[in-house]
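Hello again,

I reread your note about wanting to compare the complex against the isolated chains. To keep things tidy I'm splitting this into two emails, and this first one only covers the full assembly. Below are the input lines as submitted, including protein chains and any nucleic acid or small-molecule components. They are followed by the predicted structure of everything together. The single-chain runs will come separately.
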Amino acid sequence: MTASILVIEDEEPIQMLLRYNLEAEGHRVRVSADGEDTMMLIGDERPDLILLDWMLSGISGIEVCRLVRARAETRDIPIIMLTARSEEAERVRGLATGADDYLIKPFSVPELLARIKSILRRLNPDAVAEELKAGDLLLNRATKRVMRANRDVNLSPTEFRLLEHLMRNQGRVYSRSQLLDTVWGRDAEVDERTVDVHVGRLRKMLNRGKDIDPIRTVRTGGYAFNERFGS
Amino acid sequence: MTASILVIEDEEPIQMLLRYNLEAEGHRVRVSADGEDTMMLIGDERPDLILLDWMLSGISGIEVCRLVRARAETRDIPIIMLTARSEEAERVRGLATGADDYLIKPFSVPELLARIKSILRRLNPDAVAEELKAGDLLLNRATKRVMRANRDVNLSPTEFRLLEHLMRNQGRVYSRSQLLDTVWGRDAEVDERTVDVHVGRLRKMLNRGKDIDPIRTVRTGGYAFNERFGS
DNA sequence: TTATATCGTCATAAAACTGTGATCTTGCCG
DNA sequence: CGGCAAGATCACAGTTTTATGACGATATAA
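Full-complex prediction:
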């Protein structure tokens, strides 16, 4: 299970702790220190889950929560809040504001990982679903097979990961640099044009002949899986 | 009789008790502590039977039961629930939700083993079947023999276990490290490349000459038994 | 003990995949 | 319509991954 997680936390040691453990678990982590950048980071790339420290120096946790919940595109991102023991009362308010779960500091890391797993499973089934479907396209993670209209589609590893990522986030547009981050890996030093080539190869394999193209090019924007594909 | 059994139980002493006795009986045991990992473990390798403690800390037993019954691939895995004497009412609900049998804690181990045997025989004859079949391939667990198109195939112990594991989970792709875990054992300190060599040997024995290869290589992914083999 | 089988590792060959630059095509602006 | 910028496509060389054969070590059977 691999997810994109946004950590909003101003204490650096805890930032490190979280980043280290979440990355070890295979998640992708971005950290925002003061809640100010938060909305920008979210707009930049929609995270699958937000870990939110309740006591921030600048903007308050409750405020972040409200902002996230206010926008339609981010409304259903699950939020786990981290609170100090003394903030018991706050916690209740937090849940009322829309957090999905909470942990009391100091928290146990395995406990945190378990909660994350559970929440992702519950709210973001695509993240763990064995099969991703769209129209006549079917991607199976367990067998690593892709079929289009009951015909086998043989993809290379990179093409498979690329398609998986796009199908998991249907409709969302990803810039070339975002795709390099998620599909190739944070430290990939690869030219952005390479993404074009792989999208091209993926398309060729997917659309043998005259089928409708499920991948949408957004000029200057990037690529997306066409959410209207198959309807 | 050898089956893959998933134990969902949060009390460690009972975990140990179950693991020890079931493994002594020849079964392969995996333990999930809190019910959270359960669905993932099931996806990882379909168990032949689930032993489910009714009182779990996180997700409730009834919930696990429902989840298992909700998915088509897992719907017919038999479930035995473990309840405390006082949970009479729960028991009824459990059976209503789809458990196949129950035991009251504290239970006698021979009794448990007997129930397991009986249930597996009754509900899942395939799981304990002496034979695994696919196309012209036939693997007999009792005699440890493998035949291909009525021809004897002489496999080494490791090759046999490898083939058994892959055939039991047809279609699913296993990474080299997963295969080392399940086929070689959790603590095997063996190079991942060794898996290649054994797959190669297995293939050579299986495909004498020009037969179709039942094992599928998935680049960067691992190996799988080709679920289309024989059709 | 000797003979036989199995196992893990290494070296090398073969195959598949990847990134890049050149070139062609398309869309968009005035 | 012309010109430019962005995207699509192609061929190719380098790299990564897998397949295979050989060997010594260890275990098993006779």
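For quick reference: The interface with chain B takes residues 1, 114, 117-118, 121, 128, 130, 142-144, 156-157 of chain A (CB under 8 Å).

B.
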